[in-house]
Specification:
The chain is an all-alpha fold and 51 residues long. 33% of the residues lie in helices and 0% in strands. It comes from Enterobacter agglomerans.
């Protein structure tokens, strides 16, 4: 196993603002939200913001 892929940057090396996303967990959460919305008979929509 390549240990380099699991090393995160040090706090001081991160540019701010900084966001770290766990892609697998994000996908699981999205699928869960889609199932709940479907079961409730509603559709997920992107947020709408008028300028």
């Amino acid at each position: 196993m390549d240990t380099q892929q699991w090393q995160r940057p040090l706090i001081d090396d991160r540019l701010t603002p900084y966001i770290e996303v766990d892609a697998e967990r994000l996908e699981q959460n999205l699928q869960h939200m889609k199932r709940k919305a479907s079961a409730a008979g509603v559709a997920l929509r992107p947020p709408y913001q008028n300028a």
